[in-house]
Amino acid sequence: MTSEATTEAPQIHKGLAGVVADTTRISKVNAETNSLLYRGYPVQDLAAQCSFEQVAYLLWHGELPTNAELAEFTAHERSGRALDPVVKSVIDTLPTSSHPMDVCRTAASVIGARHPRSEDSSPEANLAKAKDLFAAFPAVVAYDQRRRRGQDVVEPREDLDYSANFLYMTFGEEAAPEVIEAFNVSMILYAEHSFNASTFTARVITSTLADLHSAVTGAIGALKGPLHGGANEAVMDTFEEIGTEGGDITRRAQAWLEDALATKKKIMGFGHRVYKKGDSRVPTMKAALDKMIAYYNRPDLAELYTALESAMAEKKNIKPNLDYPAGPTYHLMGFDTQTFTPLFVAARITGWTAHIMEQREANSLIRPLSEYNGPDQRSL
Ligand code: ACO
Questions:
Q1: So where's the catalytic machinery, residue-wise (predicted)?
Q2: Vertex 340, ends 294 and 201: CA angle to 5°?
């Protein structure tokens, strides 16, 4: 058995765990201090004080926008929100039995093929594409949920900010300020997280010098899986399996967990490859969830949340990740469970495209080696 490049037994880093693949200036995940910085700013401070538009600008440009820069950026974002009729007609051909992430993946690809600068990967073109995709994607997510409910497209409103308009296009009515604020927080927390699986996928695709939309389309595929973005949906499935009606919620959560662990199930919304002492984003998202629980008067969900979290701590000593509070937050807002990961897509488009641009700046083809362990050479 030899590796592709050497006869010495190589050290294998299964799942690339612990491998530092490159440098990045975009975000710093510090597992020891449970902290996450975007371009140097703590994410909880950004969530408390900034709009998602400001954070998107920060991720791409490295600095927060001045008032004039923000005005120019948001004007562009507001003018690019309408659902392209061609994208709509392609979405309409997709069965409602398909997962909404399949719709996102397809839409990203169609938007890319229709972009006037589709084959231009210059820094200016990539920044323009990133901003266009950021502006266009909420309409895709909102319309896909609506069509599954037999509802028509809702045209965007230019007088609303990103989060307020996203909620408006999805539900056809203006959301309450508390709901808009919690949604804005979730978008900021989901925006960026260094070399996670989907971002790394985007960087691998970019490293071949493929275009930005190809990289985003691939990243959406990587995000769909339940070990990554798909976990926020799976959390809600768990909550629904346990249920909050009738009987002792805490006892039911404990019993459900015992059964699940006995069959070696992974408990969705818990654990993290990098954070072992807890996900830095959870306290901020949990505070947003608590506000939604109070707003919608659902103390039963709070009880279930705490019961499962405590049982998991006791049985496995594993802490929640961002998807654990985000799933029930989106549920309370009225999103269908299968729309949760598409919301993650809309947020992470910012981080992915920032990484695509960074990868392009100092590119090297990403191509690791493998250790062959198949049959020795043999004759036909
Ligand atoms: N449920 C049960 N056991 C778990 C969980 C979990 N959620 N997470 C880790 N473990 C256990 C593993 O079974 C393993 O135990 P063992 O050593 O006895 O076999 C040990 O903890 C180490 O787990 P690994 O899977 O090796 O850790 P890894 O770093 O590879 O996994 C991952 C990280 C994939 C996120 C894992 O924790 C998991 O599957 N979690 C559930 C899915 C999830 O919530 N994903 C969202 C990630 S965050 C995000 O995308 C925003």
A1: 272, 323
A2: 135
Q: Tell me the CATH architecture of domain 231-332.
A: Orthogonal Bundle (1.10)
Ligand 1 site: residues with CB under 6 angstroms?
A: 15, 227-229, 231, 266-273, 316, 318, 321-323
Residues of the chain with CATH 1.10.580.10: 27-227+339-362
**Among protein residues, the one whose CA lies closest to atom 39 of ligand 1:** 227
Choosing among 1.10.260.40, 3.40.50.300, 1.20.140.10, 1.10.580.10, the CATH entry for 27-227+339-362 is 1.10.580.10
**What does the pLDDT look like over 183-238, one tens digit per residue?**
999 999 999 999 999 999 999 999 999 999 999 999 999 999 999 999 999 999 99
* pTM exceeds 0.90: yes
Which residue out of 198, 266, 315 has the highest number of ligand 1 atoms within 8 Å of its CB and is therefore the one to mutate? 266
User: Are 285 and 322 within 8 A, CB to CB?
Assistant: yes
CA of 273 to the centre of ligand 1 (A): 7
Distance of CA 344 to the CA centre of its chain: 3
Task: Give the tens place of pLDDT for each residue, 125-174.
Answer: 999 999 999 999 999 999 999 999 999 999 999 999 999 999 999 999 99
User: Nearest CA to 88 among 135, 129, 144?
Assistant: 144
- 102 in Cβ contact with 197 (< 8 Å): no
Which atom of ligand 1 is the closest one to the Cα of 261? 2
